[in-house]
Structure formats: structure tokens, C-alpha cells
Design a protein that fits this description.
The protein is of the alpha+beta class and 423 residues long. 26% of the residues lie in helices and 24% in strands. The chain has three domains: 130 residues, Immunoglobulin-like, CATH 2.60.40.10; 203 residues, no CATH class; 65 residues. The chain starts with a strand and ends with a helix.
């Protein structure tokens, strides 16, 4: 988890909360989130000590910095209105984060006038926990409203960096999930999500279709609650065995990697391992992403014993083809801050790697050949013109001899000049 809270005007040491003397407003900015790439939700809240007596137009411009305030990597601007009688208004900015942030700042206009008491040119960005977990996740609280909480992750599951939002804090647009690796919920969570915030559930599923991962726990030891999860997610309700309903058990310990997970989940691939994941989970493709359901409750993912060697559920995931789909860089095929040696595995099937060597060879031959060929062509043209001129004034044989002599002389002079100028 990175980011944190910032507010202006700053709170007085005696606890008094001040407001701008120009506009009567106060700004609070919360950059807390998980994940290091994609669109980062930034919560901006304006408040006043008393309800406003008239509608107020506000413009906020948020910018993020790379190494210094002069190296601004991105800026996002948003207009909003604080209506008459209101004392608070909030907006979520979705800020692209393609490089590490070391600072951020913002500017504010109230009714068209800059309010310098609400502005900060630069504020340090908390990177203390950057990279603290290998994967970034949201684990739902199953609450309608509530503060954004940091999920206590036991030592046995240190590879996950998680936040625990209430339903009202979930992103309203699918791109708000793009910094995440997975969303983790239970069957009960999905039912509450569909009942109270169906639009946000649809947006989350759009993110899954774009390549995200949804994990659903507590579907029953025999997957008897799976139909409830399918109904909440709007999946086709089919009768029969898991395979007939589109779910697949993946091989554990398989040597196959990369895009093979989606191929197998679509039913187009054969397993190459006797052991499968049915005891721990089954999965299905959803667009370019995956939905994975677990028979055991969420507590099985996070055993609290200090001496635990790890989560058996997570170990099963990491032994399957899904492991290659978890990390952001692996899933997208690119991470601006890291190399990706497995990039060629994500290319279009049957196309293969780019012909880099062949291109280098051809371009080298072109460069080495175009110069001499161009010279010979120009020289031949000059000789031909010279031959035409001489043919009008003399015999043909004499003209040809003169042309050949001139060609040999020019070529010899050019070679001698090149040898003389060589280092």
C-alpha cells in the first residue's frame, strides 16, 4: 500500500480545523491505494464549516511528480459543483500511474479564482510500502459504508498487498481496478454487491474481461453454492457437472506457462499433469480474464498461525497456470519500470517472436549495398550521357572506348579516395 492523506489548510496543533479565508472551504486528498501501475483512484473532498448559501463551482488540478516537482509525469483536472445548502462534496480522480511517484501537488479554483490557501505545489508521496507485496488485491468488507481499511495480511501470505474497502468505496469505473491484480470476495459479498451496487459490479466484471482476476471463496466443499455465485455474476446458469457449466480444474505442477491458462480454460487444451486443482479451486475464462472459485472459506487463504509455512490455497494457485496471470507485468506483457523476459510468450499464437535478426541482416545489407549501387548507377548514367555526346562527333567505337576509360578512371579515383580517407 502506498499514498496517504493530505489536507489544507493544515490543522492547528490545538485540534482546530481551519478553512480558507477566501472561499470558506477545506480540501482533503486521499491517495491511499494498492498496486503500482494503471489508473490510481485519488479521492478529493471539499468541505465547509457551514452549508453554502449559493452554488459554488470548483476546479481541481492534480499532478504527480517523478523525482522533483519539475518532472511532472501526469496532470488530471476535474470540474465539480458544490450545491447550495451542501457542506461537503467529493470526487474521485482516476490518475494514470505509469511511473513511480515521489511527490504530488494540486491547484484549486473556486468560482474561477485561484485559492492559494487550498493549493500545494508539492507533497511527498508515501513510498514506504511500495513493492511490499508481489500482488495487489482488494478484499471486500461486506459493508455498505465504512472507512477504507488496510487488510492485515499474515506472514504466511506476505506476497499479497491488500486493502479492504466497503461497497461504497469501490471504483465506479472499470479503469479504477486497473492497478490491481485480483479482487477477492465471498459468495455473500457478491449477492450484497449485486443488490446494492449493481452498476459497480458490472464495471468490475468489465475489468475482468479486460484481463483481471476475480477470486470467489466459500462456494462449498462440493461447490454446492456455485449457482449463487453464477447468478450474482450474471453467468449462464447451466445444469450438469462443473465442466459442462464452463468451469475447469487446472493441472498443478504443469510446465506449461503463459497464455496456456486461457487456452485450457476455454476447453481447447489438454492437461499434462495427473494432479489437478479441483480440491482447491476451479476456474473459467471471462473475456481475457479469469474467474476462480474456491470451495473453502476466505480464512483458508490467510492462515493466522505465525509458524505456518504458507497458505495451501495460495500454494496451489502458484503451482497452476494461473500463477503467470497474477503479476501486473506478466499479465500485460509490459511494466514500464521492469524488464519482461517472457514478453514473446504473449504474442499472437502462430505468429511467434519478431524476426529481429532477419531485420538486422537485411538492413545491414541495404546500408552496405545502397551506397556502391547508387554510385555505379550515377556513374553509368554519366558515362551514357558522355557516350551520346561523343557519338555525335566521332565514331561509335572510339566513343565506347572513351566511355569505358572514363568509367574505370572515375571508379579508381573513388576507391583511392575512400582508402585514403579511411581511419
Amino acid at each position: 500500500m502506498t499514498g496517504g492523506l493530505a489536507a489544507l489548510p493544515p490543522t492547528i496543533p490545538n485540534g482546530t480545523v481551519p478553512y480558507s479565508t477566501q472561499s470558506g472551504l477545506r480540501i482533503d486528498i486521499d491517495t491511499t491505494w494498492v498496486g503500482n501501475r494503471g489508473y490510481r483512484p485519488v479521492q478529493v473532498t471539499f468541505s465547509s464549516a457551514k452549508p453554502l448559501v449559493a452554488d459554488t463551482q470548483i476546479t481541481v488540478r492534480f499532478h504527480a511528480c517523478f523525482w522533483s516537482n519539475k518532472q511532472r509525469s501526469i496532470a488530471v483536472e476535474q470540474d465539480l459543483e458544490m450545491p447550495q445548502g451542501a457542506s461537503e462534496v467529493s470526487v474521485t480522480l482516476l490518475v494514470p500511474k505509469h511511473v513511480d511517484w515521489y511527490g504530488y501537488g494540486w491547484e484549486v479554483w473556486v468560482d474561477g479564482k485561484k485559492d492559494k490557501q487550498l493549493m500545494s505545489p508539492t507533497t511527498g508521496f508515501n513510498q514506504a510500502n511500495a513493492g511490499g507485496g508481489q500482488y495487489a488485491a482488494l478484499i471486500l468488507q461486506n459493508k455498505i459504508k465504512g472507512p477504507l481499511a488496510t487488510m492485515p495480511i499474515p506472514p504466511s501470505l506476505a506476497q499479497i498487498d491488500a486493502l479492504s474497502p466497503s461497497f461504497s468505496q469501490l471504483p465506479e469505473k472499470w479503469i479504477g481496478y486497473t492497478s490491481l491484480d485480483m479482487v477477492i470476495a465471498t459468495t455473500d459479498d457478491l449477492e450484497q454487491w449485486r443488490k446494492n451496487f449493481p452498476e459497480r459490479l458490472v464495471e468490475m466484471l468489465r475489468w475482468v474481461r479486460a484481463g483481471g482476476n476475480l477470486w470467489v471463496f466459500g462456494v462449498g466443499e462440493e461447490y454446492e453454492k456455485l449457482a449463487r455465485a453464477e447468478a450474482s455474476l450474471g453467468l449462464n446458469l447451466l445444469e450438469g457437472a462443473l465442466e459442462q457449466r464452463g468451469w475447469r480444474a487446472l493441472p498443478l505442477g504443469s510446465s506449461r506457462r503463459g497464455a496456456d491458462a486461457l487456452v485450457m480454460l476455454d476447453g481447447r487444451g489438454e492437461t499434462d499433469s495427473a494432479a489437478d486443482s479441483r480440491k482447491w479451486f476451479v476456474a473459467r475464462a471471462h473475456g481475457m480474464g479469469t474467474i476462480t472459485v474456491f470451495p473453502k472459506p476466505l480464512s483458508e487463504l490467510m492462515p493466522q498461525e505465525q509458524n505456518s509455512t504458507g497458505s495451501p490455497v495460495m500454494q496451489a494457485i502458484e503451482q497452476s497456470l494461473l500463477s503467470e496471470r497474477l503479476a501486473w507485468g506478466r499479465r500485460h506483457g509490459n511494466d514500464p519500470g521492469q524488464e519482461n523476459p517472457g514478453f514473446n510468450e504473449l504474442l499472437i499464437p502462430d505468429v511467434g517472436a519478431a524476426p529481429v535478426f532477419e531485420f538486422q541482416l537485411l538492413i545491414s545489407l541495404f546500408v552496405l549495398g545502397i551506397g556502391p549501387l547508387n554510385y555505379l548507377a550515377q556513374t553509368a548514367r554519366a558515362v551514357a550521357v558522355d557516350a551520346c555526346d561523343r557519338s555525335r562527333s566521332g565514331s561509335g567505337g572510339h566513343a565506347v572506348a572513351v566511355c569505358l576509360r572514363n568509367f574505370v578512371r572515375r571508379f579508381w579515383c573513388a576507391c583511392s579516395s575512400a582508402q585514403h580517407n579511411a581511419p
